[in-house]
Design a protein that fits this description.
The chain has 16 helices and eight strands. By secondary structure, it is α/β, with parallel strands linked by helices. The protein folds into three domains: about 80 residues, no CATH class; about 60 residues, no CATH class; about 250 residues, no CATH class. It comes from Hornefia butyriciproducens.
């Protein structure tokens, strides 16, 4: 394995840190990334500089300067050149994708005449220069290709669990501003890895739009589902029943608990939440039902509508109890996708109103692509052994029966 050697002038760095922090960090980042580029070149050539080697694949051909826009400021890197085969590096792609999406979305606002002077100043601060129309088109094209490939890739293998949710963004359309729902699907595969399977903007959340979104996932190859987790939006519930009739629905326990507590008088809400959490943490469904009955008896007189909500939604919020105990906490709420939504909101805050759907998809897709890479590099949430035990158990059959019960209740309603 090639060694990474970073040469820093200690006296110069210490002096800069005492006077100009930004310049010090710029130099540190520049030196580190230049060292990474040299290591990447050495690995691709299978030879160190001036090394005679039978495994050498090409020869060095000097360096070229290339600017990299970072949150510190623009830095200039010395990119190695190879004589016959082009040098390849992931630094510019991985470091710049989300930053570029933000810049392009704001630049489109300038180009389309719907921005403010403040946005122009932000662009110049990030880029160090103004953004031309041709430059925007070029960056858009590169970003769109990556996002489109990610968004429409085939879904291969089995995904046991699916979590869906939507968050809203303001988008300009035909001179008007609409709040559009960005639907997102998070899947967990047989290796216990979470993956962002799909996303798409819609004018609203309705049974038809949710059905269209879920059908698009199915068309791309989504199969093997055992359970779908979401909040209690009517559009999701109906769409799940139509598109995945054999898959039971797990109502998000966090949202369910909030729905119940919000209907109770304020002075009882804290205690009620604690008792609901105890019920959700029960070891068996029988124990959970016993705790539910106790909660209803204790609060019926002071929070009647709250207890009606608990009684009505209890079973759909406890579908997860069918799973082995060690797996339940990962699929009983949609909190992980809510965290993702908060990150999307944070990244898009500078934009405010997106100039069009393409700009929205570009920025959100770039962030989701980045977040998906982080998920793939993380730990599995369950082991292969757990998955093997799950396959030979009767869990899938029991979940199928729950799906049938939920479908019959929905028809009655």
């Amino acid at each position: 394995m090639a060694q990474l050697n970073i040469t820093l002038n200690q006296e110069e760095i210490l002096q800069l840190l005492s006077t100009d922090h930004d310049e010090a960090f710029r130099i540190l980042l520049q030196n580190c990334l230049n060292s990474v580029l040299k290591v990447e070149s050495q690995k691709q050539l299978n030879a160190a500089p001036y090394e005679r080697s039978e495994t050498r694949t090409d020869c060095r051909n000097g360096f070229r300067d290339r600017d990299l826009i970072t949150r510190i400021e623009t830095i200039t890197l010395s990119v190695p050149r190879h004589r016959n085969q082009p040098f390849r590096t992931l630094i510019f792609d991985n470091y710049s994708r989300s930053e570029a999406a933000l810049i392009v979305a704001m630049a489109e606002m300038v180009v389309n005449g719907v921005s403010t002077r403040k946005v122009t100043r932000v662009i110049e601060t990030l880029c160090g220069t103004s953004v031309s129309k041709s430059a925007v088109s070029e960056v858009c094209h590169d970003l769109d290709k990556d996002v489109d490939a990610f968004r429409n890739r085939p879904i291969e293998g089995s995904y046991l669990f699916l979590t869906v949710d939507a968050t809203y963004f303001k988008v300009r359309e035909s001179g008007l501003v609409f709040s559009k729902a960005m639907m997102i699907a998070y899947g967990t595969n047989e290796a216990g890895k979470r993956e962002i399977l799909g996303f798409a903007p819609y004018r609203n959340e309705s049974p038809d739009t949710w059905k269209e979104f879920l059908k698009s996932l199915k068309k791309r190859g989504l199969c093997g589902l055992m359970m779908i987790t979401s909040d209690a939006h009517e559009g999701i519930i109906q769409a799940v029943r139509e598109v995945f009739p054999d898959v039971p629905w797990q109502r998000c326990q966090f949202h369910f608990s909030k729905n119940i507590a919000d209907k109770a008088p304020k002075k009882y809400q804290s205690g009620l939440r604690a008792e609901l959490q105890e019920k959700f943490n029960a070891k068996t469904i029988q124990a959970a039902r016993t705790l539910r009955d106790k909660i209803i008896r204790d609060y019926q007189d002071v929070a009647e509508s709250s207890m009606a909500c608990l009684d009505e939604g209890f079973e759909s919020a406890m579908t997860v109890m069918t799973l082995p105990e060690g797996m339940r906490r990962f699929f009983r709420t949609s909190n992980h996708i809510e965290q993702l939504n908060r990150e999307l909101k944070r990244r898009s805050k500078t934009i405010g109103i997106f100039p069009n759907d393409a700009s929205l998809v570009r920025l959100i897709g770039s962030v989701l692509l980045e977040q998906n890479s982080i998920c793939q590099a993380g730990r599995s949430i369950f082991s292969k052994e757990t998955y093997s035990k799950l396959l030979v158990s009767d869990v899938r059959n029991r979940l199928h029966l729950i799906a049938e019960e939920q479908a019959s209740l929905l028809q009655v309603a």
